[in-house]
Structures are given as C-alpha cells and as structure tokens.
C-alpha cells in the first residue's frame, strides 16, 4: 500500500465526520467509518456491468462465500460469475405443486363422488378431464404461494433494517451503479487483504460498511399494534361467517350492494299480500297473446282448413326452388340424424339406438313409405310441430315457414321414391332409355 493510502487509512475517523455517506475514490481509498462500530463488511462500487462481472469472478476465485452483488437490472452471466449453485427452492415448489394437485383431486373426488354423489345424464361419477381446471388452479396456487414464502425464508427476509440503508449513495443501485459487498462474517475475510482485493478489481470507490446501530433493534410499537389490528380485522369476516353457519335469524341477511342477484321483487312460488289470493305468480288472463305471437291463420300455423288437414300449401309458402333448398337444409339439420339424408330411417342416431337394443327405442320411420305419401301436407306439418313417438316436437325450434319448407322437401323425397317415366321432363327421357 502506498504512503498516500496509509495516511488515508489512518485518517478514517476524520473522513467519516466530514462526509459519512459518500464512498471514497478508488486508488488511495480510505477505509472510513467511525471507530468502535462493528464492521459488517466492505462495499465496492462499479460503473458498468462488465466491471462488476470481472470483480465477481475474482472474489469467487478468492474463495469468499458470504458476499453479494446489487444491480439496477438483471445482469446476464452474474450467477456464473458469482458461482451461485441451484438452490433447493425448485424442489420445494415442485413439492407444493404436487401437493396442490393431490388436494384438487382429493377435494373433488370427496365432494362429487363420495360425500355427495350426483348422477348427471349417465356420465361417470369420476371423470378426470372434468376436474382438470380445479386441479390446475390449486397446483398453481400452492406453487406460487410456496415460491414466495420459501424465497423469503431462504433469503432471511424481510429484514427490518440493514447496514446498506445508512449509505445514501447505495440508492443508485436502483439507477445507474453496481455494487459488490463482502461481509465480515466470511471465514476468509481480513479487512486489509479484502480491501486490496477489491481495489484490484478497479472499482470507482471502496468503503467500509458498518453495522446498523442507528435503527432500533425492535420494531416500533405503533407498527406492531397496527399489524396486530390488521390481523384481527382480517379474522372478523371469518368469525361472522362461522357464526352465521351455526345460528338462525328471523331477519334477512345484510346485503351491502343490492346487485341484480338481490332485487326487491317477488319471486315465483312466494307469497304476495298485494293480491287477494296472496300469490306472487299471477295466472294468465284468458285470451292473452304475447306480442308478435298471434297465430290466427290455422292453415299456416296448424296445417288445418276448418276441421280437416290441409292438402295444399298455404298461400304464404311459395312453391319454388328457394323454398325447396331451404327445406333440404333444415331437413339435414333436424331430420337427417334419425331419418337419414334421403328419409329412409337410417340416420346415425337411429342406427346407434337400434344397436344398443335397450328395448325403449322405436325405429325412425321411412318418410317415403306409402301411407306417409298419402298423408295430407297439413298432417305432416302437425307431426313436425308436435312430434310423434320418439320424435320430439320441433315447433319451438323451427319457424312455421321452415316447417312447411321441410314438408315440401319431404314431398319431393316421396315423389322421387315412387317416380314414373311421366315425372321426367320429356327432353330428358331419351337419356334414361
């Protein structure tokens, strides 16, 4: 060490009194700091990430263990330069994730399959795909919370105070400066030799980092009381919920925000003192018709002319190619699954039901058979509207105009089944011969 450095080292106390929060310049650095205060370690400041990486490699190769770096942004390669090895944290998070996964499986199996089994449309009581969302969410939840808590625990956080808090210039670690701190607790730490090692890394400044004797060792009482009040306040809702579960009341529950799910109205099957019969549900008035639902044309809406089934299509239904195409399209959507594409009763739904042979299925009809060809179009329309045997009513699903279009297409299928040479246009008859 040069004479200038030795003199600076001897004047430690005076330098600290004049400028306690400023790091000392690189060459000829003073070790600074007030005498008698325990040493936490040495801190070196660098201007660039490259300088910090180079310094980290030298400190690593020197065998130091208790040291760390501080940067305003992630520095690529700093883990390798510091010799940081993988921690146990990934294994802890993996265990938490598997625990969350198992919890999700057990919770849903217990509630849906064992404790309160509920059969839905013959589906299996336990089906893994249906439970994947909850399993995934619990796995992520357990992993995330465990990662945070384990990271804080492994790093000894949170710390109420730290010696670096007393160095005002250290605030630049979040802006444009890079710092390296070697702790005095390291087995290889010797102040003079460590100082020389840091000076050899070409920092802009090196300084002594003394233990914090300014911040009180105990947390302030107002802060402690505040945290206790917050914790107790957080338990109040759970206490109220627990009380509500084991008690009864004649008063309605408190609904702070009256959203649409809690409207002041009379619901179905409830009492209403306004009316003489005390019923909230009012019976329909005779002759009442919903707006736009007046069906006063029996031919169009019911397929009848007087008391007889209509044998002609309503005047509102044009016999045209467009109506035929519309009927073919609707037949393919609603009828073909059972009756087949050409109406022979060999649709996929019918074939599957016959194959199962459960004894409750009535095979779908062949719409081209003789007795259906002789049925009036109004009766065919009525069958589509109200259904028959296994066939459900399609009146609520298909408009009257589309039902008549389907009847027109069915008539075309029937005519094609029993067609004669006379039904073929005269210009095309030669090609058939």
What does this structure look like?
It is a single chain. This protein has 433 residues and is α+β, with helices and mostly antiparallel strands. It has helices spanning 3-10, 12-18, 49-61, 78-82, 89-115, 128-154, 191-199, 221-245, 298-302, 321-339, 348-356, 370-373, 377-386, 400-417, 429-432; strands at 24-25, 39-46, 67-70, 178-183, 205-210, 304-305, 308-309. The strands form two sheets. A five-stranded antiparallel sheet has the order 1-5-2-4-3. The chain has a two-stranded antiparallel ribbon with strand order 6-7. Helix 10 (321-339) crosses helix 14. Mean pLDDT is 85; it is low at 1-20 and 25-34.
Secondary structure elements and their pairing?
Blueprint: H1 3-10, H2 12-18, E1 24-25, E2 39-46, H3 49-61, E3 67-70, H4 78-82, H5 89-115, H6 128-154, E4 178-183, H7 191-199, E5 205-210, H8 221-245, H9 298-302, E6 304-305, E7 308-309, H10 321-339, H11 348-356, H12 370-373, H13 377-386, H14 400-417, H15 429-432
Helix pairs in contact: 5-6, 10-11, 10-14, 13-14
């Amino acid at each position: 060490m040069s004479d200038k450095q030795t003199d600076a080292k001897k004047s430690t106390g005076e330098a600290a009194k004049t400028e306690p929060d400023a790091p000392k310049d690189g060459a000829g650095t003073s070790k600074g700091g007030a005498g008698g205060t325990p040493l936490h370690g040495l801190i070196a400041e660098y201007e660039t990430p490259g300088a910090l990486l180079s310094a980290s490699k030298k400190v690593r190769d020197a065998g130091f263990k208790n040291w760390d770096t501080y940067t305003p942004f992630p520095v690529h390669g700093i883990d390798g330069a510091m010799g940081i090895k993988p921690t146990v944290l990934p294994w802890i998070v993996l265990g938490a994730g598997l625990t969350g996964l198992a919890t999700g499986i057990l919770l849903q199996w217990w509630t849906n399959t064992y404790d309160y089994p509920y059969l839905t449309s013959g589906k299996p009581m336990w089906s893994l795909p249906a439970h994947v969302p909850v399993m995934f969410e619990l796995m992520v939840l357990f992993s995330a919370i465990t990662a945070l808590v384990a990271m804080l625990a492994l790093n000894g956080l949170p710390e109420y105070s730290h010696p670096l808090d007393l160095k005002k210039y250290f605030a630049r670690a979040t802006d444009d400066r890079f710092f390296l701190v070697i702790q005095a607790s390291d087995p290889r730490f010797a102040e003079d030799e460590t100082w020389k090692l840091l000076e050899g890394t070409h920092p802009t400044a090196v300084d002594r980092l003394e233990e914090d004797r300014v911040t009180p060792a105990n947390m302030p009482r107002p802060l402690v009381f505040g945290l206790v009040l917050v914790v107790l306040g957080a338990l109040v809702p759970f206490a109220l919920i627990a009380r509500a579960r084991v008690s009864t009341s004649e008063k309605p529950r408190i609904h702070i925000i009256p959203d649409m799910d809690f409207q002041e109205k009379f619901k179905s099957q409830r009492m209403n003192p306004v009316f003489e019969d005390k019923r909230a549900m009012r019976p329909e008035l005779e002759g009442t018709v919903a707006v736009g639902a007046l069906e006063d044309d029996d031919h169009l809406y019911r397929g009848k002319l007087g008391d007889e089934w209509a044998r002609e299509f309503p005047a509102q239904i044009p016999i045209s190619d467009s109506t035929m195409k519309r009927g073919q399209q609707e037949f393919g959507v609603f009828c073909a699954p059972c009756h087949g594409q050409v109406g022979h009763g060999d649709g996929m739904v019918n074939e599957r039901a016959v194959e199962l042979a459960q004894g409750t299925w009535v095979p779908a009809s062949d719409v081209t058979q003789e007795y259906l060809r002789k049925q009036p179009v109004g009766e065919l329309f009525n069958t589509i509207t109200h259904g028959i045997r296994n066939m459900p009513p399609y009146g609520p699903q298909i408009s009257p105009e589309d039902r008549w279009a389907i009847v027109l297409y069915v008539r075309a299928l029937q005519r094609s089944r029993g067609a004669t040479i006379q039904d073929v246009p005269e210009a095309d008859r030669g090609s058939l011969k």
